[in-house]
Amino acid sequence: MEPVILRTPRLELSLPRQEDVDAIHRACQDADIQRYTPVPVPYERRHAVEFVARIPGEWEAGQHLTWAIRDGGRLVGTIGFYRVDGRGAGEIGYWMAPEARGAGRLREAAKAAIEWGFSAEGLALDRIEWRAVAGNVASAKAAMALGFRYEGLLRQALMSSHGRDDGWIASLLSSDDRRPQPWPVLPA
């Protein structure tokens, strides 16, 4: 699959580039990114170099599709579809640099990615899953705001450099209303 660029009123979603390596490396020093995403710990500069180099081949294979989220040309996070199965399902994943959190950029980027993921011009997905380490309230609040429906707890299902963690799982179907739904694991 050829990489695509998605644009919103203030963001661009495009392939990570070599000039993003330092920003990726800096962001991945964040304790929350290291705790809640499957990045190596400690996260060294070479990991960012390898990450950027790997993305074009993953797009070509069509199973893992990662974008850099850029605001004014500056990398503020990443988002993508992972484990795209070719049968209408994939999983969304994301992280935001600490200094970029709380300004609605993640929801803006995710809405664009989700629309593309469901569209016939994109992946034509029927189901998008979201998974996160149980306790990752910030990620869960973002997914809930995007209309994902909480489905349950996956016991010891997620692996990271910390070992196994329980995971929360939610989904969004192409036919779903995108209004936020209550989640039993989040405060009302």
UniProtKB/TrEMBL annotation:
It comes from the Bacteria. PROSITE patterns: GNAT (PS51186). Pfam families: Acetyltransf_3. Residues 11-174 form the N-acetyltransferase domain. InterPro entries: Acyl_CoA_acyltransferase, GNAT_dom, Ribosomal_N-acetyltransferase. This is GNAT family N-acetyltransferase.
